[in-house]
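hey can u check if this looks right to u? its 644 residues, i copy pasted from the old doc so theres a chance i mangled smth
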Amino acid sequence: MIFFAFTLNGVEAQDHCPITLALDPSSRMLIDAPSDLDFPDILTTNFTVPYKNQSLGLIKEAIWIKTPLNLDRDCESLQWSLVFGTAFHDFIDLYIVDGDQLLAHYALGDRRATHPILGPQRKPTIPLAAYINQDTSNKPLTLYIRIASQNALIADLSLMTDQAISDDEQPILILSAFIAATLFLLGVLSLILLGMTLKIALTYYFIMLVSYSFVLAAVYGWLNLTPINSDPWLTIAQATIALSFLLLSNTVLKLDNLFTKTYRSLLILNSLNFVFACYSAFIDELQLAILFSHLLGSFTIFMIMLLSIRLFKTNTIARLYMLIFGFMALSLILRTAFLHGLLPGNFITNHLFALVGIIQLTLLFFTTLSYYFLEFKQLVTQKQQLIFEQEQITQRKLFLRLLAHELMTPLAISDAAARNLIDDIELECKSESNQKLRNQLLNDITIQRRALKRMQELVQQCLVSQQDINRFSDGETSLKLILTSVEHEVKAMDIDNRVILNTAVPLAKQPQLIIKGDHQPLLFAMKLILNNALKYSPEQQKVELAITLEPLTLLAEKASQQLIIEARDYGIGFDHSYDTPKPFKRGNNTGNTSGLGIGLHIAQDIVSGYHGQLIIERMDQGSRVRLMVPVYLSNDFTTEAETE
């Protein structure tokens, strides 16, 4: 097609007349003409700049072109038309003048209604045959052309016969069909994958694809066949492409995690550019927004390219991005340079942006697929690893339960035997001569019973830590029952009367409030923090256990309050090496006090099952451990309140 287009100017008709002609060499231009300069004034205006096929960039006003219609007398019988090489000019005015007489005025452009005679056109094309044939004077007709646009102004005009127009249109139709089919296929595939995966990167890609399609439709003039005023939407589309490309790049390259400041700066700039483009479209002042979009788009691509280079060795997607950037940078640089008049217009500069853009969008689509394929592969690997670890955890739990069950029986037998032995010693050692032996034996057995009790507690902790999670979600327990159970458990534990129990929950609220789930794990968690406070306090030191209600700062369902079970001791406290409960981790200040460091960790796990939390507070003397569990209004009282 390119070869065909380049050789088109050399094709001649059978009568040796060319079918395509450039404007007369004596043609002149008036650049940046005042907006109030109208046709009568232009007849007396001096045109000084030689005409040439070029892009003039974003100039402020209009351009005028003056050209004589010099044709070989033998070729005047052909059906000639004036064809504009650019499809997206806003306003085009053609004045056909014979001497001082105005023969015709054509008003075209994509901001005007369809010409009543010419109809909708992809590229502005004005037939001249009728005026050439009626010219009987010796002087050639003069054409005055005014072009105005908020997009880049391009002086690209030629005289073409109907045959040349038909020949020139064929490669454009083929190219447009190829581009449309490719964009449609990419759009359908991205929508299908978006519906299947719901991945945000595909959303960004689809937005970018639609915006790019709109730009290409405007560049090739297909929007001229519709009543759409494309300029405002074209401005927004260019800003949308840059913003969606940045968001897509961040999703697949994780720029926000690796280059936070750079990415967020680019995001702010492109977001402001998008807002500015929308505002400019609203007030219909587009040139500054278009210029800013071109500059910021180029800068964004350049910055992401630099970031991709930094990730080249460690990120597979970054390597694919480098290939995309090669095409994107080339097309963007050449197209921008052409639009701003730095490169001459030809078939390559006219179509390179579209062809390279299609390649770029195709590569970007497969790059996005590669990213999600790698992510899916990683997720499969992680899932397999998780399944393997869960199987190991299940096996460890089963082993622990079996071991704990097997240990409980001999421990219970040993404890019963020790109690029986104490009774036997009491009976056999009544005489004063045996009192010393009796006391020694009783002391030894008491120590053994304490060790047995400690072992039973450890085994019990292991069993409770493996309880079914349903105990924390099924059913409900009234606050009144919890308080009664806590009081009973404290009395059973507090043999030496060291615990000061303080319940500050109003009696009126106790039947109304509940916790969700069984209360037994919560009681065990209370026993763990209370036992911890007693163990790390001096033997005669009192320990306070307080139960209160406090408001919740973050509401969850109907929960507006939380139950606080607080153990306050005046012992050694927690040193700074102990920040959060972790299994088998103890503070450096525990000294020779026995323990495995799993009590508070188990309590924390239990409370988390109730959607609560365990908080450790260091005090000036000792410490305070708080169990915080959300409480809810009972369904019975909820119904009554709703009825009232």
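Residues 1-14, 638-644 have pLDDT under 50 and may be disordered.
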